[in-house]
C-alpha cells in the first residue's frame, strides 16, 4: 500500500486527488495540507511514501517545503504537480530534492503511474524531457563565475570508475538504459547495475538527481 500526502492550497484540487487515489487498491491518502508548512509538519508526523506537492501555496511554498522534507532524510519522496505555465519552477523543485513533476492537466492514469514510479524510486519525468527542462530553465539559477566552476575531480565523482563516469555523463544527456546499452555495447542488465552503483556512490535519490549532478559537475554543458 502506497501512502500519499496531498499538499495543495485549493480544496477542490485536494478533493479530486483524494477521490482518484482512494479509488485504487494500492493507494491510500494519509493527510491533506493546505500550505507548505503544513506539508512539512505532516510529512514528519505521517511519513508518507509520496507527497503530491503543489508549488504555489501561501506562506511556505512547495519548493522550500520539498527542500525541508527531503533534507530530513526520511524515505518520503516528492512528486511536484504544477500548472503548465509554471514549468520554470519545476527545475528548482527537482534541485530541492523532488523525484519528478507532472502538470495538473495530466491524465488520471499518468498521475497514478507517476505516484507508483516515485514510490519505487524511479524518476517520473522521462530522461529526454528532463534534459529539455534543464536546458530551458538552467538560466534561472545563479551562475557561478567560470573561475568557480566545479573542478574535474569534484568529490561527488571521486568514487566513480571511468565507466560509471561515462554512464553518468550520458544519463545527463538524456540517454535511456536501452540507448546506453546499444551505444556502449553493454547488456541492459549491466547498465542497470552501473546506474544503481552511480546512484549509491553519489548519494543521488533517483535518476533525475543524477541528471542534475551531471549538470552541476559540468559533465554535461547546457545547450
From TrEMBL:
Residues 153-218 form the HTH luxR-type domain. Keywords: DNA-binding, Phosphoprotein, Transcription, Transcription regulation. The modification 4-aspartylphosphate is found at residue 54. Residues 3-119 form the Response regulatory domain. InterPro entries: CheY-like_superfamily (IPR011006), NreC/VraR/RcsB-like_REC (IPR058245), Sig_transdc_resp-reg_C-effctor (IPR016032), Sig_transdc_resp-reg_receiver (IPR001789), Tscrpt_reg_LuxR_C (IPR000792), WalR-like (IPR039420). One of its GO terms (biological process) is phosphorelay signal transduction system. One of its GO terms (molecular function) is DNA binding. It holds the Pfam family Response_reg. This is DNA-binding NarL/FixJ family response regulator. It comes from Streptomyces paradoxus.
